[in-house]
Amino acid sequence: MTAIGTPFLPTVINRSPDPSMELYLSSSGGSNNANFVTSQDLTVFRPGTGNKASMKSTRNAASPSASFAGFYWGSPVYGAANRIPVTPGEVISAGVYVMAPYANWMGQIHVWFRDTAGATLAGWQPFTVGSTGAIAANQWFRFVAENITVPAGAAIFMLGMNGNLASGVTVGGEVCYMDDLMVNSGPTLLPYMDGRQSGCGWIGQPDSSMSVQPALRSPAQMNRLMDSSLESGVGNAQVNNNPTLFTMSYDTTVKHSGTQSIKIVRTTATPGAQIGNVSVSGPGTLNNHPNKIWVTPGETISAGGWFRCALDSWRAGFSLSWRDINSVLVGTALTQPSVLYSGANVWVWHTFENIIVPAGVAFFNLNAIASVPSGVTVGGEQAWIDDFICVSGAKCPPVDRSDWRPIMVPKQSNMIRPFGPWTQYDGAVTQSLDLAGQYDGAALQPVDLRDVSIV
After folding, report:
1. I need a surface site. Which of 146, 173, 398, 434 has the fewest CB within 10 A?
2. pTM reported for the whole predicted model
3. Are 56 and 177 in contact (CB under 8 A)?
4. Do 113 and 149 contact (CB within 8 A), yes or no?
5. What is the per-residue pLDDT for 416?
6. Domain containing 270 — which CATH number?
């Protein structure tokens, strides 16, 4: 018999992070008009899915209008965790369940498209794609927008809804509830699914990432680091940890792969050895930042990346800062003793392996550090970094862009580019996943036959 690797391709993808409003991150959604206030509601939600929350809209004052509800879902900010990504030219469909306690109310669904700067595209502010007839009170009604071609320049999709009373005007305090948002590829809206449903899973943190069906079979072998090849160039995708001492820029001439790397330059002589210190996972102060690296207390992780320096002798190292779900620091930073390397302008693979995640940690920041070999800097020292990875387990495979493949399409914008898990490092070489299980630092675990076909 021969084991032949079969690529894992989810048959259904719900692009909406937190589609049932369970986590309700900041900038996830909100009111589309100052007359309405939105909030998370933990008492009213659509039954039958296992979810326990919805988004509530409340009319904040009386007015000579029948409009009693108005809200949107999907962040308008390109770098926000809960944006809904799209690619120009593709066809998508979207829908959301809405319920209100008023007889014969009516509503309209709207869609927005924005570019990478967050600017609304002309003609999409918003564009009404559907209206309803009378809707019964206390009935979960699904608003649907299907067969929408994404316009040129679009990077973000947003869905909105307005509700109107059947007659009369509002008196203030009117409420409406929104739940179970689905955004999928194709001309037809699919039945609602999220990572909590049977046979489904999340590609990252539950209630804060896309959902796939069937669930990922080998998530432990996935590179968790977003924008791992530093390609996006979006502000705060990577962060200079001390702009006073170092400059950070994207270098399109010197790079390990792709179109660019990060160049760091020591700007002045000081009593310090560091040439540069860069977070490759965004700022740790934002728990809703898309580049955060989620972890579970007690698990073992490993990280690695490519370093290069203009000096003949130099050092490389990593530092990890642990944070809880609210971005509060947990304990002290874990700093790796730097490793000495020789050779100017040569790319070197450097790892920090077999790290056990402390209790109370939800995510961490990975900081890449380049230093002079001894003494202090004199100013002008240069270093480059590129192609990082963070995986489960006691060993970290080197990044070879030729054999690590994208985990899913569509990607979550240029800022979200996970790859893997279709190859696995066995401690010596990179092997196809059908030939290797997960390496634990001592031995290979058995092959998971769900990931292969037997012929």
Report:
1. 173
2. 0.57
3. yes
4. no
5. 30
6. 2.60.120.260
User: Residue 30: left (phi > 0), alpha (psi -120 to 50), or beta?
Assistant: left
User: What is d(CA 341, CA 185) in angstroms, rounded to the nearest whole number?
Assistant: 48
**CA angle, corner 104, sides to 102 and 106, nearest 5?**
95
Residue 454 within a domain: no
Range of the domain at 298: 239-401
pLDDT in tens, 340-394: 999 999 999 999 999 999 998 888 999 999 999 988 888 999 999 998 888 877 8
Q: Which two tokens stand for residue 318?
A: 């990593």
Buried b (16+ CB within 10 A) or exposed e, 416-455: bbbbbbbbbbbeeebbebbebbbbeeeeeeebeeebbeee
Token reading at 209: 């990432």
Residue 18 burial (CB count, 10 A): 23
- pLDDT tens, 57-69? 899 888 888 888 8
Q: What is the mean pLDDT of residues 69-91?
A: 79
- Stronger pLDDT, 104 or 208, i.e. the higher one: 104
Amino acid present at 110 = H
Give all strands (DSSP E) within 74-173, no chain letters: 84-85, 91-99, 106-114, 127-131, 141-149, 156-164
